[in-house]
Structure formats: structure tokens, C-alpha cells
Fold this sequence. Notes:
By secondary structure, the protein is α/β, with parallel strands linked by helices. The protein contains 8 helices and 15 strands. The strands form 4 sheets. A 5-stranded parallel sheet has the order 2-1-3-6-7, sandwiched between helices. The chain has a 5-stranded antiparallel sheet with strand order 11-10-9-8-15, with helices on one face. Helix 6 (152-163) packs across helix 8. The protein is elongated, with a radius of gyration of 18 Å.
Amino acid sequence: MATILLVEDDEALNRGISFKLKKEGYSVIRAACLTESRKIIQSEKIDLVLLDVNLPDGNGFEFCKEIRNKNILVIFLTVCDQEVDMVTGYDVGADDYIIKPFSLMVLMLKIKAVLRRNVKLKSNKSIISGDIAFYDEELKVYKNNKELFLSKTEFKLLRFLICNYNQILTKDQILNQLWDVDGNFINENTLAVNIRRLREKIEDNPSNPKYIKNIRGIGYSWGKVCKLND
Length: 230
């Protein structure tokens, strides 16, 4: 079972979530601040971080940036409910964003969905498509043997498109897989922004893409055949 780091400075909420997680069979390590969390990340193998945004010694968004290349999943648990906060959370690498107050049952479902999705997407260790080389476990992408530097959100988007290269993916399918169980609070404009940024990095001519194809009125598809390597 996964090991979860719970970073929450509200002691009562921290205890309550921790109790529920342990009841569900997860291994839980608790922290009340970023200083504790950094020490834990360095010494323990963490699969998922449940992370508040406003903490006594810093900002959860900044901490998420620090750990996003460590192959650790992140779900924000926060009272920050503005759209700009949600967009920031996903942009710095969040796998989900949950607004307080929330149901513990919904939280457990979202944790299971994020962990299950990650296992499925990691099943293909390397993928070659045209002049793109995608290395999942190393979190690296190369074009013509030169490394591309993607945000965690861009990496997840690329991974989902490549892993479904022979399918037309609706916008709802992409939003559901990448950000939330039901995709209610991430709109199509956010997806379009991330598609544009990713095209700018992987396409020779972003205005005439050969990889990320727009399927008018439906969504997107990966336009190149992929070779999967174990």
C-alpha cells in the first residue's frame, strides 16, 4: 500500500485525515509544516503528498515545485478556492486540487483514482514517436536527442496523449484523467493553454502541428505512431 505524507497544520484535521487513511490501509506520515516535510521527503519513500497551501513556514505551491521532479504525486487540500489558485496548483504540478471543507469519502476516492492512474500510466517505461523520445520513469522527454523541459502538468498531458496515440480523446476525457475525478472545476480554456504550451515545445511548427492534432468539436489526438519499449 502507498505511503502518504500528510502536510496539514490544523491538528484536529490532521488527526482525522490520518485516522481515515490508516483505516483504509495506507501508511501515513504526518507533518505540520514545510520544514518537517522536507526532512521526511529526504529520508522516506513517499508516494503521495496531501498538501495544504497556507502553512506556518511557507507556501505549499512552492513546496510542490520543489518535489515535482521526484515522481511524487501531490493533492492539494486547501481553503484557497479562487480559480487563479486552482490554476496555480495544477501549473506547479498538482495531480488534484480539493477545496475545504470536503468529504473524507470523496478524498479517499480521489486518492485511489490518482494512485491507480499513476500505476497505469507508468506501465510503459519508454515510448518513441517520430523524433520524440519519452522516458516515463525518468520524467524526461527528448526531441532529436535534446532534452525538453516540461512542467509536471505538460508532462502528464504528453504522457496521456502518447499512451492513447491511436484514439481520439475528448476534452472531458483528458481533463478527467489529468486533473480531477469528475473534471468539474477545470475548464476547457485551461486545457487549451496547456496544449498550446506543449505544442510550442514539441512541434517544429506549432501552428501546423504533426503530433497534437485538434479534432474540431471533439478534442485532440496524438498524430504519430508510437513504439512502446519495456
